[in-house]
Inverse folding.
């Protein structure tokens, strides 16, 4: 386990060391043993030879007579020449002469009868022994041969040498072997490091490159041109990196295209997994529900979009295994009508893996439908009221009222009035439809607004007088706009008509302007009945009137402000109103200068 964690270099050097250790160990063990044996053997042979040589020189009588002086001379002579210790031992084990002892010292010497080499010599063979010499205080090799007189053993000749020499020789060899071993270890380390280096360097390069590849950086390839396995590995990895890079590029392009499509969709799209956790949402969903994609991802649908109706549709689709759809009205954070479609997403094996939710904003469609319905109903209603009256009076006349001169004239006047209303209504409708269809071309020209207002005011003289309304045209005489004169005249007419119609007796109407950047704001202020705040947002809608009966009574069609709005918008301007019920209203329009 520990070995597994070590670096390749360590393992390689370690195995080199093991090989060196085993081979040197074996060699050293056997060599040492053999050398020791051989050296001892040689030493023994040489000692035996020396003993034999002495035997031939020694006079047996001297032994028998124990002529110690002679023997002492002999052993000393021999020892000096051969550097060996020589001892002559009598049959009883008494030392007769010893090269290391003087004649007087011999007296104190121990009896040698118990020495193993002497015992062997006495039985007629060559005795040997390695022992610690108490005399010389070192390990010695003793060799003893029998001394014979007429075939009878009369003593022994013992030659001894210290083993130190043998050991010293062995030590020299051991030192050489140890040095060799250390040298081999050093070599193993150097070669191991070198070899590990040549292998590790490219391997490290490959490791670094692989890390870069895994991080998606394929810009630099692995540079290694050797023909061995590592070179092959580098080439294979480079090829793999190229392939991956190509695939990644393809996938990136595809994903970018998909993301672009996904995010540019007007429909809101949510991708969910099978546990209804959000996998992805597009920009439209971010806008509809005021959420952020990053915060939504991975969370449960209901955690992020707290709409139980949609969640119900998702579980219905997952349960049924087929697409479901439903129309929902959302009120928060956006208001609108949405078509909700949920389709299950299938895996290859036919298992449901998640679902796809698509939200289609159909608010505008529904609004237009409602508007169309309302418009038809309104037009029918507006037409029906005067027509019913006309029909009634005409029938009365036909049924005989024609003969009643006085009444018939009155009836005809009423019929005439209703016909006029119908005419007004149809004209307004036609005008509105023409403006709305945008077919109309603007005949733009420079208009002096003050003069145009004065011209229209002139047309209202009798109405103004009737109610004693004071009108002030405070527009500057230099105020010019570029617009379609007839259309703007229509706008002024409609606004002034209302300002007079809905005014009180002795009231006033003020016309003035404000300069805004790049445009002029023209305001028509009256001291009339005003408009309730709740009606203000809808006042420019077709047929919208605060008080229907009153408007009709005053000859209104409910289309005047709608026409104003359309004409101003046609001129790229805008309209608006501020009003306080009971105090008066300020209608304004902006036009680019
Ligand atoms: P109408 O033919 O009824 O005047 P408009 O579209 O011109 O139709 O006006 C719509 C409604 O707006 C009117 O019926 C009236 O209730 C309200 N209105 C318009 N102008 C004024 C005003 N100056 N003061 C008070 N109410 C107004």
């Amino acid at each position: 386990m520990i070995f597994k964690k070590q670096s390749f270099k360590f393992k390689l050097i370690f195995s080199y060391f093991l090989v060196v250790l085993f081979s040197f160990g074996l060699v050293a063990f056997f060599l040492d043993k053999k050398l020791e044996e051989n050296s001892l053997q040689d030493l023994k042979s040489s000692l035996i030879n020396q003993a034999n040589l002495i035997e031939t020189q020694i006079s047996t009588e001297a032994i028998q007579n124990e002529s110690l002086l002679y023997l002492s001379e002999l052993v000393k002579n021999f020892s000096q020449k051969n550097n060996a210790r020589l001892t002559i031992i009598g049959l009883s084990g008494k030392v007769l002469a010893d090269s290391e002892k003087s004649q007087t010292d011999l007296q104190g010497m121990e009896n040698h009868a118990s020495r193993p080499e002497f015992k062997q010599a006495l039985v007629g063979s060559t005795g040997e022994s390695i022992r610690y010499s108490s005399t010389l205080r070192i390990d010695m090799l003793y060799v003893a041969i029998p001394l014979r007189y007429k075939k009878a053993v009369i003593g022994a000749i013992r030659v001894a040498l210290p083993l130190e020499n043998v050991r010293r020789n062995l030590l020299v060899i051991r030192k050489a072997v140890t040095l060799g071993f250390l040298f081999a270890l050093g070599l193993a380390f150097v070669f191991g490091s070198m070899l590990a280096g040549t292998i590790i360097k490219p391997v490290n390069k490959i490791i670094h490159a692989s890390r870069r590849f895994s991080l998606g950086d394929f810009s630099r390839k692995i540079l290694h041109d050797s023909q061995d396995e590592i070179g092959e590995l580098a080439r294979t990895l480079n090829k793999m990196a190229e392939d991956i890079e190509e695939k990644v590029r393809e996938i990136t392009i595809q994903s970018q295209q998909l993301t672009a499509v996904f995010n540019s969709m007007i429909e809101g799209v949510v991708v969910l997994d099978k546990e209804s956790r959000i996998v992805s949402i597009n920009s439209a969903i971010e806008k509809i529900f005021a959420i952020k994609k990053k915060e939504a991802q991975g969370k449960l649908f209901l955690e992020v979009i707290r709409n139980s109706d949609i969640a119900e549709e998702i579980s219905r689709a997952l349960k049924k295994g087929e697409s479901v759809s439903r129309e929902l009205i959302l009120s928060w954070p956006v208001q609108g009508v949405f078509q909700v479609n949920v389709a299950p997403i299938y895996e290859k094996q036919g298992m449901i893996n998640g679902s796809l939710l698509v939200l289609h904003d159909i608010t505008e469609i529904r609004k237009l439908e409602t508007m169309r319905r309302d418009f038809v109903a309104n037009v029918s209603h507006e037409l029906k009221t005067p027509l019913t009256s006309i029909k009634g009076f005409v029938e009365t006349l036909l049924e005989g009222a024609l003969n009643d001169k006085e009444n018939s004239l009155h009836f005809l006047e009423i019929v005439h009035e209703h016909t006029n209303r119908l005419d007004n209504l149809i004209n307004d409708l036609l005008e509105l439809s023409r403006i709305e269809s945008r077919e109309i071309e603007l005949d733009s020209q420079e208009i002096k607004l003050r003069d145009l207002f004065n011209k229209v005011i002139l047309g209202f003289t009798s109405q103004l007088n009737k109610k004693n309304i004071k009108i002030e045209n405070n527009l500057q005489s230099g105020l010019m706009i570029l617009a379609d004169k007839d259309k703007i005249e229509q706008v002024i007419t409609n606004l002034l008509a209302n300002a007079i119609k809905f005014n009180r007796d002795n009231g006033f109407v003020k016309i003035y302007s404000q300069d805004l950047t790049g445009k002029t704001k023209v305001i028509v202020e009256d001291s009339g009945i005003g408009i309730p705040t709740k009606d203000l947002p809808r006042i420019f809608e077709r047929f919208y009137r605060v008080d229907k009966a009153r408007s009709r009574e005053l000859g209104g069609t409910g289309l005047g402000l709608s026409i104003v709005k359309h004409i101003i918008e046609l001129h790229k301007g805008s309209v608006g109103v501020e009003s306080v019920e009971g105090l008066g209203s300020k209608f304004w329009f902006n036009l680019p200068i």
Remarks:
- Residues 272 and 278 are 5 Å apart (CA to CA).
- Residues 265-358 form a domain with the Beta-Lactamase fold (CATH 3.30.450.20).
- The first strand starts at residue 85 and ends at 90.
